[in-house]
Amino acid sequence: MVSANDVQRLFLQSVISRRVLSADLAKVLWKQSVEAVKAVDDTLQINANEVDGWSNFLASLNKSLDPLDLELSRIRNEVTGRETYALVNRRDDEIARIASDYSPLEISYFRALVEQIMLAPNSSYSVSSLAALREVNSLTSPMTKAQAESILASFVAKGWLLKSKVVFLVSARVVELQPYLSQPTQKRSGLHHLL
């Protein structure tokens, strides 16, 4: 039997493979999910109004996702200025760490970069590309500058960092890193679940 909750299921199935999507696409996927559920049972009362219906849907969706330590977060893209949504994991545990594509050394490098970006003077939240590469000297295990350049390019390609003359965190990733960034420095544990 179909229910209004199936709108959430359909929407999440559409979002999971994308993880980050524009606000316009998110609303299109939501409307298509509403239409698909109503096509099965047109007696269901589902608010499809773009303003309050969307807001209510997001609030309900995030309430449903909360026990799973997931959230659909709204972010403004710093490059385009456009609103985007990201499905983020809010939990740091062993299972989440297994999903990482990066080695412990590469994660340590990313952690060191995040520290330097967050501690940057004048709240610039950026470091020079040269300073980012020098960060390999703070690692306990050796990493060459060439390896650092390669992994830094990977972080940029995956949308974790932006790089021009300086390196800084992407807003979508700041949202995902919030639990990590809000911890005191000595308590910050691995970013494995985010990478």
UniProtKB/TrEMBL annotation:
- Which keywords appear in this protein's UniProt record, sorted alphabetically? DNA damage, DNA recombination, DNA repair, Metal-binding, Nucleus, Transferase, Ubl conjugation pathway, Zinc, Zinc-finger
Which is an annotated GO molecular function term of this record? ubiquitin protein ligase activity
Q: Which family does it belong to?
A: Belongs to the NSE1 family.
Pfam families, A to Z: SMC_Nse1
Q: What is the protein name given in its UniProt record?
A: Non-structural maintenance of chromosomes element 1 homolog
Q: Which GO terms describe its biological process?
A: double-strand break repair via homologous recombination
Q: One GO CC term of this entry?
A: Smc5-Smc6 complex
Assembly, per entry: Component of the Smc5-Smc6 complex.
Query: Tell me, what does this protein do in biology?
Result: Acts in a DNA repair pathway for removal of UV-induced DNA damage that is distinct from classical nucleotide excision repair and in repair of ionizing radiation damage. Functions in homologous recombination repair of DNA double strand breaks and in recovery of stalled replication forks.
Under catalytic activity, the entry for this protein gives: S-ubiquitinyl-[E2 ubiquitin-conjugating enzyme]-L-cysteine + [acceptor protein]-L-lysine = [E2 ubiquitin-conjugating enzyme]-L-cysteine + N(6)-ubiquitinyl-[acceptor protein]-L-lysine
User: Transmembrane segments in this chain: where?
Assistant: none
Compartments annotated for it: namely: Nucleus
Q: What is its EC number?
A: 2.3.2.27
Which InterPro entries does this one have?
Nse1, WH-like_DNA-bd_sf
The principal location of this protein is nucleus
